[in-house]
Specification:
The complex is a heterotrimer. Chain A has 9 helices and 2 strands. By secondary structure, chain A is mostly helical. In chain B, helix 2 packs antiparallel against helix 3 and helix 3 packs across helix 9. Classes of the chains: A mainly alpha, B mainly alpha, C alpha/beta. Chains in contact: A-B, A-C, B-C.
Chain lengths: 257, 200, 564
């Protein structure tokens, strides 16, 4: 079964790290450039994230993500470079398109922000098992009901996706046209989505029964099959990350004077 | 006022949420398979909102974007968790106020959802991407407004308006058509006011 | 003291006026194996869900009377507490997985975690149960990747680890293939030895006769009878209540073989015992033979010959030549298949994975062959789209919920005819005819989602019949059907066949196949092992063994008696 999660277990040190530590890293990576306010902080943190991804042997999984975000970044460069309201200083021109320095600078900042966020999230997403994250959240007092929502999306979604082809086939067997002009295609939408919704809701009823009879609704402290082995890296890294954030805050305050 | 926000967080409603997230995904999938020019990716959120109320709608919306954002690495989705939350919440309130009981009323509900989306998305667009939305036609319009020298906020608002309002309109028409036919045996599971009657 | 006592139980689902449970009183002793039988809609599942308290706590609605389990009131004790006393397993294995665990081991632990069972105890219990149900070897697999039978065993394990006093099994095999069914029944066998109280709902009455101490016979929300299987199955009015007695009882009744207490035997072993007393009746062979024949409503004259079916003797509608197909490079499904299909009603049988569904999907044009040709009326179908074939070949999918989307039965059934260009009046006429044939007359204006699963299945069949295609393909039409439903589908097959249409059906129910089909094709691993009429096919022991199929009960009995 194909999972929708991008998580891969490479047995790397990032896999072993506690999910919270990695969440703190996201916070640090996004926070520092915003607090520090200097453009050069972005490439620095993007570099950091890239190094982490390489050390976790997950760079190959990261590339498609970067590729996808590039289309968005290019659109931003085009629009801002051409039309930003602050545009004054002509940077270069391609044919009749005139790109301005201010717009390009603005776009660079946005682009870097996107890339920085993307990569810091990638560090977390590619190395953390969703199940582990939910387990840890529940152990620290997060409601098991919400934990269930997250866990079950990963299990149920691939199943729902598998019904897509069956529904298409069943309706086309009854002569439903799925190609043609816009009106024909619009009309085909309801016969396709309705069975999805209906069977999802009927399945929901059955699944809630299955959960009820297994004590899901109980107000009781849950028990766990295993504890997470503790790693001392977690503490060290958390301390470093917090110090970095605090240092940036202090530095910003000092440089404001 | 209390009845509008009344929420039953029992097993049935909890299981409804992942199902709605799945419906969102398949709506988007079918829309792209049929090459429709709309997203149609909030059908599930709206169904959750209509069945379970504004709180469940909001949770469906937010959870949808958070989970996709956090697993598929698409952090653009992640930011719009706020928008989805708003759509679910507003549609939920309007549904509880009786705006899903007839077709014309459902259209008003749809506009409510669309406006919620526009109001929340526009500042996010400006903050994170300088005003673009990622939709080709919307962004073309944005580029045109910028070229014409209009303020960023106005351009971005228009960009969002042409993209979101038709999308939510169609979404809620579909939701209305689907919900109209749901048997009571199913909807009673999510009804916060359902009671057990005694027969003896 | 009885472990379950039900008094004057009444219940209505919300928004309905019908009492699905109408003044039910029952008491069940510890350690008993109780069966609940009755036609679809009799209230069997509702009763079982009332024992654990899902009715009324989960569904709401209107409730009267009382249910006591271990002295606890099912109406008010939360289901989360009650589940320590009563376990419930139902039809669809897939929906019973919590959907929140990615290993079998974790899935089985789910309930124990909720109960707050200590870790060591939890691990001991899981290991014991997984080994007991023979799924220990799958403990690290994703439960969603397992076969239906394996998944259903995981579901049973998930309940069993919670160590309930009562176990309710609501048609646990109805959605499984023969192998999965066998696996689950083996588990039920093992459970009977543990002394746990079991309540089971099941349409396979031959099995019920084997297991049950007593049977509850239900009809329209009422308990009609509560007695031993022999006495219940010997009731003269059973068929009128929509229940067909097991094959052995039917045969013994037609032969007039009674047990000393005046009842008819219900199991193979009891039948063999009775047989010993009637051996002296020299005419039994003739009688049995004539009974067996009357079961097969096919014209036996031409088929009973020993010559293999020569394809050119019939006009071929489909001709499959040297067909090759695979979903992926590694696993080839068909490797040069040849087949001709004429207008005889044809059943395709075999285990899951034999290639049955793939074959009919290729015939329908939903899949395209890798190489080889499929001719329909001597025309190659490779160039045609599914929509182009829609008016010639009808295909009823397994799950009706994959296609139903309208809010009136009639609209749903008219959807196909209108799509293929019929005018409104003709579409309506065809739709009404199809509904009549499927026993849905008077339900035209109902919402399909208010109907039972078995009726929705009939709606799906009608919606394809109304398109008036020359070929009708049915993928496991019998799932979830009771005796009456099966009879109706059987009649429909005859009716279509009589009108010169080709019916192709994938089936798991061998007795049904023997009764209603003129031609039987046995498939395994993508090839055809046997092809002929029911008599010819079901006497080929090696073929059935290779295809892992069971003989119809009547054939089984006939052969056993012949040996003796």
């Amino acid at each position: 079964m194909k999972s929708i999660s991008l998580y891969v277990d490479r047995g790397s040190w990032l896999n072993r790290l506690h999910p919270y530590t990695k969440l703190l890293y996201i916070l640090t990576a996004i926070g520092i450039p915003l607090i520090g306010g200097k453009l050069w902080l972005f490439p620095f943190l993007i570099g950091c994230s890239l190094c982490l991804l390489i050390s976790a042997k997950t760079l190959r999984q990261t590339l498609p993500l970067i590729g996808f975000s590039f289309t968005v970044i290019i659109v931003i460069f085009l629009i801002q470079g051409l039309f930003n309201h602050q545009n004054q200083q002509l940077l270069f021109s391609v044919g009749f398109l005139r790109f301005y320095k201010e717009g390009i600078l603005y776009a660079t900042r946005i682009g870097c922000n996107i890339l920085n966020m993307l990569l810091s999230f990638a560090v977390f997403i590619l190395t953390t098992s969703p199940q582990e994250l939910v387990d840890e959240l529940e152990k620290s007092g997060f409601s098991p009901k919400f934990g269930y929502i997250i866990n079950s999306v990963f299990q149920i979604l691939p199943q729902m996706m598998a019904t897509k082809d069956t529904i298409m086939d069943a309706q086309r067997s009854r002569g439903l046209e799925t190609e043609g002009n816009l009106m024909v295609r619009m009309k085909a939408f309801l016969p396709l989505i309705s069975p999805v919704v209906m069977s999802a809701l009927t399945n929901t009823r059955e699944r809630s029964i299955a959960l009820e009879v297994r004590g899901f609704g109980r107000k009781q402290k849950k028990t766990w099959l295993s504890d997470r082995p503790k790693h001392k890296e977690d503490r060290v890294i958390r301390v470093i990350l917090i110090v970095l954030i605090l240092a940036t805050v202090v530095w910003r305050i000092l440089s404001c004077r | 006022m209390k009845t509008i926000f009344k929420t039953k967080l029992n097993t049935a409603t909890i299981v409804l949420i992942p199902a709605c997230i799945g419906i969102n995904y398949l709506g988007k999938l079918f829309a792209s398979l049929l090459k429709l020019p709309l997203w149609l990716d909030s059908i599930g959120t709206c169904i959750g909102a209509c069945l379970g109320g504004p709180i469940i709608g909001a949770i469906c919306g937010a959870a949808n974007n958070l989970i996709y954002g956090l697993t598929t690495g698409d952090n653009i989705t992640l930011i719009y968790a706020l928008t989805s939350l708003g759509i679910g919440f507003v549609v939920g309130i309007l549904a509880r106020l009786g705006f899903m009981t007839s077709f014309p009323k459902a259209l008003i509900c749809a506009c409510g959802g669309g406006i919620a989306a526009v109001v929340i998305s526009t500042p996010l667009n400006i903050l994170f991407w300088g005003g673009t939305t990622g939709n080709f036609w919307g962004d073309a319009l944005f580029a045109a407004t910028q070229a014409a020298g209009m303020p960023v906020a106005v351009g971005s608002l228009l960009d969002e308006l042409v993209v979101d309002v038709p999308d939510k309109l169609l979404t809620l028409i579909i939701v209305y058509l689907i919900l109209k036919g749901l048997p009571k045996k199913l909807t009673a599971l999510y009804d916060a006011n359902a009671k057990i009657e005694r027969l003896d | 003291m009885p472990i379950i006592s039900i008094e004057h139980l009444k219940y209505k689902y919300p928004g309905t006026d019908r009492l699905v449970l109408d003044d039910i009183s029952l008491s069940i002793e510890k350690g008993e194996f109780i069966g609940i039988i009755g036609k679809n809609g009799a209230g069997k599942s509702t009763l079982s869900q009332a024992i654990i308290g899902l009715v009324p706590q989960f569904y709401n609605g209107a409730y009267g009377g009382s249910v006591l389990v271990d002295g606890l009131r099912a109406e008010s004790v939360p289901v989360g507490e009650m589940c320590e006393h009563v376990g419930l397993v139902f039809q669809n294995p897939f929906n019973q997985l919590s959907g929140a665990r990615d290993t079998v081991y974790g899935e089985v632990a789910f309930g124990l975690q909720n109960l707050g069972v200590e870790r060591e105890e939890m691990k001991n219990r899981i290991e014991r149960v997984l080994k007991q149900l023979d799924i220990w070897q799958y403990r690290d697999r994703n439960p969603f990747d397992l076969s239906g039978g394996q998944m259903q065993r995981v579901a049973i394990a998930g309940i069993l680890v919670m160590q309930p006093d009562v176990m309710i099994l609501d048609e646990p095999t109805s959605q499984l293939d023969p192998q999965g069914t066998e696996e689950v029944f083996r588990v039920v066998d093992a459970l009977t030895k543990t002394g746990i109280t079991i309540i089971m709902i099941e349409q396979k009455l031959e099995k019920m006769a084997d297991y049950c101490d007593r049977l509850v016979l239900m009809h329209e929300g009422k308990v009609v009878d509560f007695d031993t299987p022999e006495r219940i199955f010997s009731r003269e009015d059973l068929e009128k209540l929509g229940v067909q007695p097991p094959a052995f009882t039917r045969i013994c009744r037609s032969l007039g073989w009674k047990q000393p207490d005046g009842t008819y035997p219900a199991t193979l072993s009891a039948t063999l015992r009775v047989f010993d007393e009637h051996k002296s009746d020299i005419n039994w062979k003739e009688k049995l033979k004539s009974y067996q024949r009357s079961g097969h409503q096919q014209p036996d004259a031409q088929g009973s010959g020993t010559t293999p079916i020569a394809n050119d003797a019939f006009q071929n509608l489909f001709r499959v030549r040297d067909l090759r197909f695979s979903y992926s490079k590694e696993a080839e499904i068909f490797d040069g298949l040849n087949l001709g299909l004429d207008d005889r009603a044809t059943a395709i049988i075999g285990q899951n994975g034999a290639g049955k569904t793939t074959l009919v999907r290729l015939l329908k044009g939903l899949l395209k062959p890798v190489s080889g040709e499929i001719y329909f009326r001597e025309q190659d179908i490779s160039g045609k789209t599914v929509a182009m074939l829609a008016s010639d070949i009808g295909y009823v999918f397994q799950n009706p919920d994959d296609q139903i989307f309208k809010y009136h039965v009639l609209d749903e059934v008219m959807f196909g005819p209108l799509n293929i260009g019929m005018d409104l009046s003709r579409a309506r006429e065809n739709a009404e005819k199809a509904l009549e044939l499927m026993g849905l007359r008077g339900k035209e204006e109902e919402n399909p989602y208010d109907l039972e699963m078995s009726e929705r299945k009939m709606v799906a069949i009608a919606s394809v019949l109304a398109m008036d295609t020359d070929v009708i393909i049915l993928d496991e039409p019998n799932i979830a059907q009771d005796y009456e439903g099966k009879k109706r589908i059987g009649t429909m097959i005859h009716e279509l066949s009589k009108n010169g249409k080709l019916v192709i059906a994938i089936l798991h129910d061998m007795d049904f196949v023997a009764e209603y089909f003129e031609r039987v094709i046995v498939m395994a691993h993508g090839s055809i092992l046997a092809d002929g009429n029911a008599d010819e096919v079901f006497c080929q022991d090696e073929v059935l063994e290779e295809a892992k199929l069971q003989k119809p009960y009547i054939t089984q009995l006939y052969e056993r008696l012949m040996i003796q």
